[in-house]
Amino acid sequence: MLRFAGGEVRAFEELYRRHELRVWRYLQRNLGNRAISDELTQDVWFAVARAASGYRPSARFTTWLLTLAHNRLVDAFRAARHHERPAGAAGSDPLSLIEQLAGDSRAEPPERAQSQQHAAALLAAIGQLPPEQRQAFLLHAEGELTLEEVARVTNTNFETAKSRLRYARSKLRQLLQEYA
User: Fold this and answer.
1) Which class does domain 2-179 fall in?
2) Angle between helices 131-141 and 147-154 in degrees, nearest 10
3) Phi and psi (nearest 5°) for 59?
4) With 0-12 CB in 10 A as exposed, 13-18 as middle and 19+ as buried, what is 5?
5) pTM for the model
6) Given its phi and psi angles, is residue 32 left (phi above 0), alpha (psi -120 to 50 degrees) or beta?
7) Which residue of 3, 28, 31, 136 has the smallest Cβ count within 10 Å?
8) pLDDT, tens digit, 9 for 90 and up, residues 144-167
9) Helical ranges in 54-157 per DSSP H
């Protein structure tokens, strides 16, 4: 990011290549709406470009980037006039996500079918989590953020982030018992 702020355009391309899918998946798995996720992802990257000159590395770039994505997500929830998932949320466009989660396309058809079934169940279970738990879980699992970073992104304290993640995991275990 500092290289991009210094005028190196290829540095932005590298950042985008490394992190674009992570941002999109975080938004998609919270919203479940491809069009809105695409739009918000684009907004995040415009914000990155606009903020380049003032960027100061006070945390990992990924933490800063997912904070931007989280803020766009919160704005989308507010625009929907409530802090619930918008209509069609989490799981309404499962095919591409199931393919991502299903893994190796070289696997035999029965294994692929089972993987897709497990992926669909996981996505459905994630969609059943309360928004705060879902966000904490996805920031940790998808964003690969530490609990401290999750707390920072969600503007909560460490213990709140830890509790949300613990409750999310517990609920997911409960919802996915038959797949264990």
Assistant:
1) mainly alpha
2) 130
3) -155, 180
4) middle
5) 0.66
6) left
7) 3
8) 889 999 999 999 999 999 999 999
9) 61-79, 94-102, 109-128, 131-141, 147-154
